[in-house]
Design goal:
Elements lengths: L1 H34 L14 H32 L4 H10 L5 H34 L7 H32 L4 H28 L2 E3 L4 H13 L6 E4 L10 E4 L6 E5 H6 L2 H16 L2 H23 L3 H5 L8 H16 L3 H22 L2 H15 L7 H7 L5 H11 L1
């Protein structure tokens, strides 16, 4: 009973601490951005108007303020699902159908996922059709939104259910070392998804067309040859179908790598700037950031599964979180729900690693192209995407995967 009491208190304490920290950082961000709303930073004054700067400030503070509502909502749901008895109620109702443990587990997790997705839907709708619409970014129609939701759900069932079956089977049948076998399965599955995503999954949601012949393609091809990068094609995605935000990315690996530009990005940038942006993305490849990120992800997953293997043997783990009948599937579901509460403090470490990679990719781009072109491209993207130029230093250090705009531009100016 003491273990039950102690773990329940620990869970509630960590939840309170993480929530207060999130609120504190969000308030710092709101205050800092608002305080610097009246004046464009000197280093950007020539390229970004006060109107654009204030739009970015308003967009940022609106998003942060809105983010507090789902934060409280998610906390309430987490408590209801766990110590409030929600998962216990769901589990008992599924058990009544006398399914075998694996099928019962799949049913519980699917029903939970369906209910959660339905409860989160209003926030997604508001963000897309109110906030993004207000600031002129939304291009998604109600029809596209619904179709995307249906496609995503169907894809999740087709891909997720077989994987879940394998994981639950290993947890039930593979003995003490199940967590190691499960890690191998998850790692292999992740690699498979990365390989098939460009050609099989992404086209379900977006239209991909090869980049047209011309000066842009010639310059990109020349850059790829200089950097020794072989891809399975250079494509343009119809990003404007859903948003006016611009972006570019790599997907896949091995011989199935693709370079993808949003059509909105092609409209924003000149050929010089586009080449510089691509050189930055190539920097991630040449500096092996993708491989390093995969290694960290795999290592983190292995550690998490080892902890789960230990927790699922302890009866107090279940009872302290509102479950009276221990099971492998409930251990998996509970662990997935509470893990973000206990790992929140590690967020800055991942942010530091990501920002380090961005600096290295910028340095590589400055070697391959003119750093001034990348600076112009980034400033243009900050303006068009309404990215704030004045984020709170603490908020940025905790959350941001990219360096703050002033720091990044100063670093590139030094390279130039």
């Amino acid at each position: 009973m003491n273990e039950l009491h102690n773990f329940t208190l620990l869970f509630l304490a960590m939840l309170l601490i993480s929530t207060l920290m999130r609120l504190y950082l969000s308030q710092r961000q709101i205050n800092y951005v608002s305080q610097h709303r009246a004046k464009v930073p000197d280093s950007f004054a020539e390229n970004i108007s006060l109107e654009d700067h204030q739009k970015a400030a308003d967009y940022t503070t609106t998003k942060v303020k809105f983010g507090r509502l789902p934060l409280f909502y998610d906390i309430a749901l987490l408590l209801i699902w766990t110590i409030g008895g929600g998962l216990e109620w769901l589990d008992q109702n599924i058990i009544a159908y006398e399914l075998n443990p694996i099928m019962a587990g799949i049913a519980v997790i699917l029903v939970y996922s369906l209910i959660s997705a339905f409860l989160d839907l209003p926030f997604s709708i508001y963000n897309t059709f109110v906030i993004e619409e207000k600031f002129g970014f939304n291009k998604t129609t109600a029809k596209t939104f619904i179709i995307d939701m249906i496609k995503g759900s169907a894809l999740g069932l087709v891909i997720g259910v077989p994987l879940l079956y394998i994981i639950l089977w290993l947890m039930e049948q593979a003995g003490e070392q199940w967590w190691l076998y499960t890690w191998l399965v998850i790692s292999g599955f992740s690699l498979l998804m990365m390989w098939i995503y460009p050609t099989w999954i992404a086209p379900i949601f977006n239209k991909f067309e090869p980049l047209e012949e011309g000066e842009t393609l010639n310059r990109i091809t020349s850059l790829l040859e200089r950097c020794g990068f072989n891809s399975n094609g250079i494509f343009v995605i119809d990003g404007s179908k859903r948003s006016s935000h611009g972006n570019a990315y790599f997907s896949g690996f091995g011989r199935n790598k693709r370079i993808v530009f949003f059509d909105t990005l092609l409209e924003m940038l000149s050929d010089d700037e586009l080449e510089a942006v691509l050189a930055h993305e190539l920097g991630h490849f040449k500096k092996k950031h993708i491989i390093k990120g995969m290694f960290i992800s795999f290592a983190t997953t292995l550690c998490a599964l080892a902890v789960l293997a230990w927790l699922m043997k302890a009866e107090w783990f279940y009872t302290s979180l509102g479950i009276t009948q221990p099971s492998t599937y409930m251990a998996l579901l509970l662990f997935t729900l509470i893990m973000p509460v206990f790992t929140f403090a590690f967020q800055p470490l991942f942010s530091i690693f990501s920002r380090k990679n961005e600096f290295e990719a910028d340095a590589f781009a400055a070697e391959q192209t003119d750093a001034k072109h990348l600076i112009h491209a980034l400033v243009g993207l900050y303006r068009e995407n309404a990215n704030t130029l004045t984020p709170d230093p603490w908020y940025s250090a905790f959350y941001d995967s990219h360096p703050p705009a002033p720091v990044r531009i100063a670093h590139l100016n030094a390279q130039a």
